[in-house]
Every structure is written in C-alpha cells, then in structure tokens.
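Data card: per-record layout.
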Amino acid sequence: MSAPLSKKNAAAFVQNLEVKDYCRDAPFDPPQRYPELPFVKRVNPGNSVYPMIRELWLEMGLDLENIGTPAWNPFRGIIRPGAKVLIKPNLVTHHHYLGGDAVLSSIVHGSVLRPIVDYAFLALEGEGIILIADNPLESADFDEILRRTGIGAMVDRLRDDDCRPLKLLDLRPKAFRENAKGDYVEHPLAGDPLGYEIIDLGTESCFAGLDDRDNVYCTLYDKTIDHLDPFTTGKSKTDEFHHKGVHRYVVSKSVLDADVVINVAKLKTHCKAGVTLGLKNAIGIIGNKICMPHHRGGPPPEGDAFPHYPRASYVKGRRAYRKLRQTIQIHRFPGVRNLISWLRKNEILVAREIEHGNWQGNDTLWRTILDVNRIWRYADRDGRMSDTPQRPNLTIIDGIIGQHGDAPMSGTPIVSSIVFGGFDGPATDALAVKAMGIDYRLVKTVVQAGEARRWPLSAEGSLGLSLPDRPLPSLGFRTPKGWSS
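The structure for this 485-residue chain is written out next.
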C-alpha cells in the first residue's frame, strides 16, 4: 500500500505488508521485465523488494512526463551520463547478539540496493561509475557484511555478466581485531583510495554554541580514555579536533569527489540520537571516527554523558563485566559471550543506568550529525565549503526490517514492510520518525536540521511545513531506555 504524493511534499513512502523479508537470491533481479530497463535480462519472480523501490520513484514523482513509457528515467536530470555516483548504505556491523539474520535489522540488504544500482546505471547511459561505500565499525568484518547482505555477490555477478561499472569500497583507514588475549589490536586497511580531507567548520559549526565552556568531548572510539570511569576529566583525542573556534572533521575524498550521493539508511532507533535514519547515516563518510564527538563528560550542565553520576556499585559491576567479557574472549566461546550480552541487556547481569550519552539529554551527537551532513552537501571536491549545494543528495530509508528498543545494534528486529525516500533529508527523516510513532520534536537531529543557519539542510526552512499532511502507518517503534518518558 502506498499513499499519493503531492508535488509539494519533500518525502514519500511505500508500504507493502506482504513483504516481510528480503530477497535472498543474489543478484536480486526484478520480478518482471520493465520496459525502461532493457539491459536487465534476468527476472526473479520471488523478489518483492525491487518493485517497492521502483514504486518509490513513482511516489516521488520522478520524471513525471515519461512515467509508464520505455523512456522513463527517474534519475534524469539528477545523474548525468558519465557521472560518479556514490551509494552509501548503512553497513555498520556484521553481527547481532541474537545471532542469525537479526543483523539484517542493523544493516541495509543488497536487495534494496539492486534497483538503485539499476536506475543509476540507466541514467549513466553506459558511462561513469557507481561506488558502493561505507565506513562501518572499526571492529566490523567488512567481508562478512558483504556476504550476509548479498551485496558482494550482487556486485560480482553484475560486473561479470553485465559489465557494470561497479566498485565496493571499505572507507576505513584501520580496523580493530581481537588477539588471543581478547584485546583489540589496530590493523591498517587500504582505506579510501583518494585519501581524506580535513574540513574545519570553525565558528559555523553546530558546536560553536558550546565554545564558551571547557568541554571534554568523548567517543567510545577513543581508546585512550577509560570510558567506565564516570569522573574522567582529562582531555580526549576528540578534543584535538574540537576546541574553541576549531571544529574539524576527517572526510573521505571519494564522497567529496562524487557527483551524486545516494544515502541508503536503516529504520532504527538510536540510544544516543533517538533515531538513526538518513541524517545519522552520514556519519559513515568520516575517515577518522575519533573526530566525531558523541557525548561530553560528566552530567549536566557541564556534560551529557548521564543525567547524574552512576552509583559506585554500578561502576564496579560494569568493570567486573568487562573483565569477564575479556576472559570469555580468550577462550573463544561466542555463544557464552552472546549469552552474557543478553543477560546484561535484560538487566540480569548488571542493572543498567544511563551512561555514555545514551539518553534524551544528549546535546552533543546531533551537532556532529548535522555538521557532517552540511559537509556532505556543501563541501566541494577540495574540501572547501560553498554557499550552494555541491551534489544532489537522495535519501532512501530501508524499513522492511527495522530495529527498535536499545538500537542501533542491540535492539529488537521489527518487520515494518516500508521504505521512505526524498531529496530533503530532514523532511524524509521527519516523515519516518512520525511513522515510527515517535514525536519528532524530541529528536534534536531532526528539529535542529530545520533551524535557520548557514549551509541549511532543508529546502523548506521550517521542518513543520515540510511534513506531508497525509495518512501514515503506525509502526509502533519502542524508544531506547534513555528516551522513555
């Protein structure tokens, strides 16, 4: 089921309640032949995901004058022949504590990407290149992600059989691998073949409003800090990128070099940001994760790591949990590790308290998210910020199987059978948040994106005006613990 799209709307959605899973047969061919795609020679009648994405183009009103004809090209005027198209899916991790296919609630599946690839290829008219790239967790196994999602098999098959100009990129400059002692050891990776650009937003950063404070910016990627010490006051590695008048980000040049970016996100809640949709997915263009503040040390008003200092007994229990987890890693018992994670998640092993900015009071991460989105949209190929957008930015949100509760990686899978799309990122996110059953006014990432500032992200200016006034399904997403009223 889908709703008609008004030309004034900045976002669209398609829901088909019969689609409860992804097509598992790579390369995820369409279920029938479409007249506008003569180069697609194979069909897969069991692929019900493909027509949902195709219908999304129709709902967005793309190439209206040619709809229903062989000349229909939904990316006409968006992707020019010979362009470099970067598809940026959310590929954050390769596993979920529930095991099995639960990880598909965390990451974008290849059957969602296939129609995007086909219609981008159509618009390129045999020239240009399509890159599928992301910067997942440093502990993630990229090859396993490609296997579980079918993306690797899809790309190999399309390149071999159809000579598609497709390339996969792991944008990470480094990864962390477990050694025999259960410690994470840094391993260098090839990273972005074009390298990385440091971009300083300075006094135009969303963090500029905090420059009158003595902040301790934190991210769990910073291994120089004991994140279980609630009284940490020393300077972090992140502080080297963010201090008064200086707010720097390390950005993948392959993203800056792209003519068009297609942002493919997952429909998930998020313990720090409330939700992780299109805007949050932009985090994956950053080459050095330490440059991204996720929370500030201490409780308010100085910080937002937690609403108040946790009990000493809780901190002691957390340290014991860490030691036990390391011991389990030494003996390589993944089943036991998953059991311990489940016990802790369900407040059986260690009673949970708010920590690491995992709550509604997080006043840090939204600033990082919006800064990175502004860079994504307005930075030119050399990393200079322009006053005009440098590339179209199409957002697609995969909610066929989403994740709610204590997401984005340890939440509960939820079948929603829905996809969203739009060229106005904040409006698309706001539409999805509304369908999730969450008050978008509580989600700072969405609300602040509509505020007037240099390098705006919403064409509408006022987020409230850009929300479509039409019936939406009620998906019933549960918010993370720290976001419960």
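Known properties of this structure: The two ends are 32 Å apart (CA to CA). The chain has one domain: 11-310+353-483.

See the next section for split statistics.
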